[in-house]
Amino acid sequence: MNVSAENIRLSYGAQEILKGVSIQSGSNEFVGIIGPNGSGKSTLLKCIYRILRPDAGQINLDGADLHSMSVKSSALKMAVVAQHNYYNFDFSVREVALMGRSPHKRTLERDNARDYEIVEDALRTVGMLDFADRSFSTLSGGEQQRVILARALAQQTPCLILDEPTNHLDITHQLQLLKIVKQLDVTVISAIHDLNIAAMFCDRLYVLQKGEIVGCGTPEEVLTPAFLKRVYQVDAELARDSSGQLHVLYRA
Ligand code: ADP
Ligand code: MG
Fold this sequence. Notes:
By secondary structure, this protein is an alpha/beta fold. The chain has helices at 41-48, 71-75, 93-98, 113-125, 141-154, 171-183, 195-201, 219-222, 225-232, and strands at residues 3-12, 15-25, 30-34, 56-61, 64-65, 78-81, 159-163, 187-191, 204-209, 212-217, 235-240, 246-251. The strands form three sheets. A six-stranded mixed β-sheet has the order 6-7-8-3-9-10, sandwiched between helices. The chain has a four-stranded antiparallel β-sheet with strand order 2-1-4-5, covered by helices on one side. Strands 11-12 form a two-stranded antiparallel ribbon. Strand 9 (204-209) and strand 10 form a beta hairpin. Helix 4 packs across helix 5. The longest helix is centred in the middle third of the chain and has 14 residues, at 141-154. The protein binds adenosine-5'-diphosphate (ADP) and magnesium ion.
């Protein structure tokens, strides 16, 4: 699925947070959004997953205007792993993952055997099937993050929106989660703050700085010492490991 956001503007009060941001993803492309803290990455993603309505601009899913679709039909196209997931009420891990099935159901339609099967597959994929009957609120942040990914997988959408999905994860689970996502045949748009992780998994990067796109291209094109100095004020070198993978090496 193609996703495009064109000239998105959004202000909180007098402060303009997104100043005419445009991004696009091709079908099954893994697009990373990088940029310093507070640059507007989450705000942009929230516009794309319909938590915020931009003041101006347009978001299209396969050429169709997002805001002319029902919430249910956009939920069949796009699943979300947001940055923070707060639950005040208590659900089991299985129940949380089953929520991913709701856009596929009619009002009050009950979950059927197929839904349970899809949810078990999703929990198995993220390594959380053994936790299916545990209470979600008793899980660690990283375990919760993996369950939220399972919920998104159970939604079976052609597009995934991820907001720093590996934040609470140790390196094993960071790599595991992104490998799972990378192997899906879906379009991915993900905010990622770790530049090495971004270089490893993204086909293309957009760089946000103070609400504007200041760079776009493959990780090789975007991640240069001059660029890292300009956007992050850090001294860095770029190197390739024995497999050819690009890495950013920071200097104190
Ligand atoms: P990022 O995800 O890149 O770290 P955010 O999109 O979360 O950045 O935030 C961009 C800017 O918008 C920040 O300066 C932040 O303080 C501000 N901001 C975010 N949410 C709100 C809000 N609800 N009200 C006012 N300002 C906000
Ligand atoms: Mg953010």
